[in-house]
Structure formats: C-alpha cells, structure tokens
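Hi F.,

I've been meaning to write this up properly since the lab meeting, where we talked about keeping a consistent format for the predictions we share between groups. The idea is simple: the sequence comes first, exactly as it goes in, then the structure tokens exactly as they come out, then a line or two of notes. No screenshots and no reformatting. I'm using this chain as the first example so we have something concrete to point to.
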Amino acid sequence: MNAQSPTEIDPAAGASPVMAQYFEAKARQPDALVFFRMGDFYELFFEDAQKASAALGITLTARGQHAGAPIAMCGVPVHAAEAYLAKLIRAGFKVAVCEQMENPAEARKRGSKSIVHRDVVRVVTPGTLTEEGLLDARGANRLAAIAVRGGQAAVASVELSTGEVDCLATSVAGLASALAALGPSEILVPDRLFADEAVSGALKAAGGFVQPLPQALAEPAAAEARLKRLYGVETLDGFGALSGAEVSALGLIAAHLETTQAGRLPALSPPRRASEADVMAIDPATRASLEIEKATSGSREGSLLAAIDRTVTAPGGRLLAARLARPLLDPTAIDARLDAVAWFCEHRPQRQKLREALKGLGDMARALSRLALGRGGPRDLGCLKDGLASGEAVAALFAATRDPLIQPPAEVAAALADFNPALHGELAQFRALLVEGLGDDLPSLARDGGFVAAGVRPELDRARALRDDSRRVIAQLEARLVAESGVALKVRHNAVLGYFVETSAKAAE
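Output, unedited:
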C-alpha cells in the first residue's frame, strides 16, 4: 500500500471537504496522531493510521484516493476510545482529539452540502491525563518543566488531575535529584538546554516522555504573560518573589496547557514554592538503591512505600508517596508533622473512627479537575457530594470531643477546618444543591440521563412522565400482540396437527 503522507500532499489540491478538515487539524498538531471523529468512530489517516494500526494491533485499510494514492486509514470505536488512548500514550505517542462540534442536522441547516464542523478539543499527552481509567489511583501523574536563567535552575510541576502545582528553585546540578523526586510522566524542556550535559544527564536519569519546546516560550516576559492568563491575575506578587527561572518553568507549563487543553482552564492551586534548603536532595542512583517508592524491579511491591502504606484513600496514598519522596529539612515543619502523627498514635479511638469515616471516600480532587476541564460526569458530581458529606461527618466526630486534653495539634486542626463544609458558606450551599439535585443511581456519562432528581425541574418531570406513559402503553401493546399471536399460533398448530392425523388415518385404511 503506497499511501502518501499528509506532509507530502497539498490539502488544497483536490481534497474533499472532510479531508480538508483533517489536513487542517493535522497542520495544527503535526507531531500528534489525530483522532478524527466520524460518527461512532475516531478515524486515523495516512501515516497516523499506519503508526496506530501497528501500535494497537488493529487492521489497516484504505478507502478512496488522494493525489493519486490510496488513503490509508484505521479507526477505533468512540465508546472504547479510552482503552486505545491508554495504549498509544504508553507507546509514547501524543493524540489530538478532533471532535464533531455539531450533529449532521445542524450542519444541514447551513446548506445541503455543508459538512459537520470539527475541531481539536484537546491533545492527550502522558502528563495531561485526567481520565480515571488512564490514571493510577494511588500514584501521581505529573507534568514537569525545567528552566535555567542566569545560572539558576527551577523545576515546576503540575498534577493536572488534582490541580496541584509545585515549584522548586535549585541549581543545575540539582536538577537530577529534583526530577527523580517528582517522577514526572512528561518533562517540558526549552530546546537550547539539550546542549547542556548536566541537563541532558538529568533528563536521561528521570525517564518519562521528554517534550522539547521552543526557547521563546521560556522567555520571562512571554512566560509571565501566560502565567497571568492561566491564573486570571493581573500580577504574580501573590505567588511570592518568583525567580526568573521559576517564572520560565511555570510559563512553559502554562503554554503546554493552553495548547493541549484547547482553551479550557484547569482548576489549579497557587504554586507551592520550595528550595533546595527545604527538602532533602536524593540523587537518582541513591533513590533507586533505597527503593523508596519502587523496588529495583520497577514495581511498587517490595518498596518502602508498599511496606508502610496503610492509607484508606487514594489521595492519602499519593500524599504519603509525595512526603516519602521529598523528605523535609526544616526542623519546625518536621516537628509539626511528627506532632500530628504522634497525636493519632496516642489517641487510638479517634484514629479508628477517622479511618472508618474515610473508607470509601472518592477522589474529590480528580473529580473536580475533570469537571473543570469539561470531562466530568454525574458520578464526579456524586463524588463531590459524598466527599463533602464525609467532611461534615469527620468534623462532627472531632467537634464532639470537648476534652481539652485530647484536642488535636495545629496541623490536624487546620485540616479539619478545611474539611468541614459547614464552616464555609458557599461550600455548604453547593453541597445542599448537589443533595437536592442529584438522583440516586448516577450514570458515568451525562448523555445517559437519569441523574437529575425528581422535583428539581417541573418540565423535566413532565417529560419523564410522558416517556414512562409511552413505555407503559408500548409494553401493553407488546403484551397484547404476543398474546394474540400466541392464540393464532395455537389455532394454526392444532389445524396442522389435525390435518396430519386425518391424513394418517386415511392412509392406514
């Protein structure tokens, strides 16, 4: 099959309207595989199809021609796209998802020859995953960026699935330790830094998908403007005295999110800043030999984390892993953390009640992130509702403890205050809205319907009543038809049987 590459074809030279749409999407994301939505399938064409069919083990076909050559293509069903995306991302590909932005009926309103409008709604990369099925529940999935300015370096990272943002000021020599502590799935690097041996060595030791970006994106002025746009602020003063390298690293992340999220702003927390003096630097070789998060085999089993992890929630597991990966150096911060641990060790009943209250708690941070990016569903709303209810239960559990001798230390008290929706008016109102509005049996996708509780919208209740009445009438008609057809079949069966009996009797005579 001599299918030509889209890079060898002029899209304007005889391309059909639909293929012209594809070429436009491909031109915007030349280094990504384009999932081009056509009805119930995402189709891939030309070299994208060849690469995807080999990586996914699906059939490569051809349909039609362009520029005198067959168009290589393969497709995956929309309902199963998540599993195929996971395979492609693990294989090291980026995927641009080009969706239908309207249905065919809407397109026909513009004219009989109009085609459905399509557009790239996101670019899926290893560091920008948010889907529950593509993530390790107890493991972080970080997108990191490095920058060097004036001999000083910085590493910024974002966990897009939870909105957590971190920034570490370090030396160039400290980049390897900083990246090893984060274990990012994807690293953004200004292209000119590849000439630096220390940077190249740090990237090789870190592993993960390395994404080169133009140096211009890391320039302070451009990076600062993108960062302000990402957070919707007029100034960065509220984030502290960010160094030039920190602004550049954070700006690279902002640029990448603008591109991959197609204009949707994720819900991000302000950057948590740290320096080499705040956390212990552990070089990659030492970290590997200590088997802190992974055993020498590469698996979690057999590591220090696996041996001591008794957390009952996925977010708790991720927090423990993060704290083990980056041990504190500040004695005051260490003492505060140890006070919290010691208090729970000394007060076993409170610890047991807290663990029971937290069991079964959903991953609220990841649910909120999916909703903010427009990828959430009714179950994500249900996760927030249940999580806020658990927060109130935990707060009430500790509020019932009036004995001043067993009051929790400052770190635990602060966490409890954040955990209690009753202390935050808007949060309490939001929870009440979810309780009132959500039904009991929530589907994964909003299009499946049935997730709005009865009594919330009168017009919806009327529509449901009509639907249920129609179903009842149809069921009654079906039952009547079955009954009547059954009688008719019985009469016909008896007539045929009688004919054979009569014929047999005549033959016997």
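Notes:
Residues 361 and 386 are 7 Å apart (CA to CA).
The two ends are 75 Å apart (CA to CA).

If this format works for you, I'll send the rest the same way.

G.
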